Amino acid sequence: MNQQNRKQLSATCQCGKVRFEASGPPILTGACFCTSCQEAGRRFEQLASAPPVLDPDSGTGYILVRKDRVQCVSGQEHLQEHRLKPDSPTRRVIAVCCNSAMFLDVTKGHWLSMYRNRFAADPPPLEMRMMTKQRRAGVELADDIPNYSGHSGKFMLKLLAAWMAMGFRRPEIAWFGPKAPTSS
């Protein structure tokens, strides 16, 4: 079966207390090199016993899924939101039981960007690299998949197609505990 057409994806935290399931194919899979993803990755990796977030090339691998097709099936009491800035519309959620980064939520969006390294069982392959102009100095990227300096038209079209299929709804995600203090 083609990995892109899977019916179900499962993501777990490092210790196994938190588990998510997503049905249907992902919107897309990609690695983001923006400065915010790199900063968040560095912060999360400094937490006690935290698993890696950043790939060796400084990118952050994501599997984008529709919010209406993902659910937390166990451990929601261990989830905690983090924001780089108090007023940021982007929140990242970790499982505090083992400090595993689980997903990024653009709160006004219709999708979740699930951290690809939380899908232990053969995650779908990367389709693209985005925001590569912000990658760490000295990083040379392979040409095995498209490398976009920003967000590509293909990226935006896939998000739009998913939103259209959802009837232009934006489901709210509220399965996590208290907010973490924001550090400046």
* Radius of gyration, taken over Cα atoms and rounded to an integer in Å: 15 Å
The chain-level structural class is alpha+beta
Q: Which stretches are poorly predicted, pLDDT < 50 over at least 5 residues?
A: 1-5
Categorize the overall geometry. Answer: globular
Series of H and E elements: EEEHEEEEEEEH
Number of helices: 2
Number of beta strands: 10
Helix content: 10-25%
Q: How much is the average pLDDT?
A: 92
Report, as a whole number of angstroms, the end-to-end distance: 46 Å
**Percentage of residues in DSSP E strands:** 25-35%
Describe the largest sheet: 7 strands, mixed
Please describe what this structure looks like.
By secondary structure, the chain is an alpha+beta fold. It has helices at residues 35-45, 153-165, and strands at residues 8-12, 19-23, 28-32, 60-66, 70-74, 79-82, 90-95, 100-106, 111-115, 128-130. It has a seven-stranded mixed sheet. Strands 1-2-5 form a three-stranded antiparallel sheet, with no helix packed on it. A hairpin with a 6-residue loop joins strand 1 and strand 2. The termini are far apart. Residues 1-5 have low confidence and may be disordered.
Question: Can you describe this structure in just a few lines?
Answer:
This protein has 184 residues and is an alpha+beta fold.
Describe the secondary structure blueprint for this structure.
Layout: E1 8-12, E2 19-23, E3 28-32, H1 35-45, E4 60-66, E5 70-74, E6 79-82, E7 90-95, E8 100-106, E9 111-115, E10 128-130, H2 153-165
